[in-house]
Amino acid sequence: MQIQSKALPQSFSLRRSLQSFTAPDQGRAEMSHPLLIVSVVVLLTLFAIVQIDLHSAQLQAIGLLSHGTGIDPVFLSP
Question: Using CA atoms, how far apart are residues 65 and 51, in angstroms rounded to an integer?
Answer without folding.
Answer: 13
